[in-house]
């Protein structure tokens, strides 16, 4: 049986504002140059974390520069998530750049391809699965090897409504995101006892580049919007709070969860 001191170490008794503080921590973020990833990288920095951005194009420095203006450190490590050999070295390269420890891994990088299942190209299937699932697993595996011995860490994966529903004309994406939900639970089952919490966030219909084609179709956009109880599509900023919550001590006893952020769509 754990002593009260040991329990306090695992679930600190802090004022609420301090529970959400990430001061002194380091977060590695994929997909942080736009959309949900950018909003969440900025949110983690606003909460006090130093940020390491894994980017396919390291010359895109606008997010890095915005984060630095917040008074925290931010560095870029080049990595194309489609290059699995580069992914295998990403965590160690981020450690070398940031020094010390990495406390939070935010897996937001991903891709989409739309086509009917009967016409879906095999090479696109492989690309979507590799980027959305295999790269996420390899990076989480490296993070686990780092975090488990330290007995602390947070891993946050970006899932999707298609973790729960199949979607249309997105067989690879739906398969990858369904697997992300299960992988989140599987890793939590192994690592929660080591004080490493693994959770996911499942976005609903969000106004980002990945959904530009849906929003461009006025009929489909209207039909989808009518099905959302909130009456609107979400924005990247809607993920700032959930991300900081899952990255902070405020969620110390939350693990293996897929938090849906969808304006009520799934509940309907």
Describe this structure as you would to a colleague.
This protein is an alpha/beta fold. The chain has one domain (17-206, 240-261): NAD(P)-binding Rossmann-like Domain (Rossmann fold). Helices cover 44% and strands 14% of the residues. It has ten helices and seven strands. Helix 3 crosses helix 10 (240-247) and helix 5 packs parallel to helix 6 (122-150). The longest helix is centred in the middle third of the chain and has 29 residues, at 122-150. The protein is globular. The model has no long low-confidence stretch (mean pLDDT 94). GO terms for molecular function: oxidoreductase activity, acting on the CH-OH group of donors, NAD or NADP as acceptor. Keywords: NADP, Oxidoreductase. Residues 25-215 form the Ketoreductase domain. This is NAD(P)-binding protein.
Compute the CA-based radius of gyration.
18 Å
What's the total number of strands? Answer: 7
Q: Order of SSEs, N→C?
A: HHEHEHEHEHEHEHHHE
> What can be said about the biggest beta sheet?
7 strands, parallel
Shape: globular
Question: What do the pLDDT scores average to?
Answer: 94
- The CATH homologous superfamily is called NAD(P)-binding Rossmann-like Domain
Q: Uncertain segments of ≥5 residues (pLDDT<50)?
A: none
**Strand fraction:** 5-15%
By secondary-structure content and strand pairing, the structural class works out as alpha/beta
Architecture, according to CATH? 3-Layer(aba) Sandwich
Cα distance, first to last residue? 43 Å
Give the fraction of residues assigned to helices.
40-55%
Domain Ketoreductase: 25-215
Organism: Calocera cornea HHB12733
Family: Belongs to the short-chain dehydrogenases/reductases (SDR) family.
Pfam family, one: adh_short_C2
């Amino acid at each position: 049986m754990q002593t009260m001191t040991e329990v306090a170490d695992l679930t600190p008794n802090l004022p609420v504002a301090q529970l959400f503080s990430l001061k002194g921590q380091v977060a590695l973020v994929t997909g942080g140059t736009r959309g949900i990833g950018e909003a969440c990288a900025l949110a983690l920095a606003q909460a006090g974390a130093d940020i390491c951005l894994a980017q396919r194009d390291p010359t895109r420095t606008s997010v890095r520069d915005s984060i630095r203006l917040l008074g925290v450190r931010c560095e870029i490590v080049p990595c194309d998530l489609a290059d699995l050999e580069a992914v295998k070295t990403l965590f160690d390269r981020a450690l070398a750049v940031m020094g010390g420890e990495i406390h939070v891994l935010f897996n937001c990088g991903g891709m989409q391809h739309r086509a009917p299942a009967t016409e879906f190209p095999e090479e696109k299937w492989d690309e979507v699965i590799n980027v959305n699932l295999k790269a996420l697993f390899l990076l989480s595996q490296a993070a686990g090897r780092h975090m488990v011995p330290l007995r602390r860490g947070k891993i946050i994966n970006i899932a999707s409504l298609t973790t729960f529903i199949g979607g249309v004309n997105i067989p690879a994406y739906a398969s990858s995101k369904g697997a992300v939900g299960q992988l989140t639970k599987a890793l939590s089952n192994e690592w929660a006892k080591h004080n490493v919490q693994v959770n996911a966030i499942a976005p609903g219909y969000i106004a980002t580049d990945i959904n530009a084609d849906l929003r461009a179709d006025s009929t489909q956009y209207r039909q989808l919007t009518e099905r959302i109880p909130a009456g609107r599509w979400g924005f990247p900023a809607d993920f700032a709070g959930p991300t900081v919550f899952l990255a902070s001590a405020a969620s110390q006893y939350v693990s293996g969860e897929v938090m849906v952020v969808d304006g009520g769509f799934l509940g309907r």
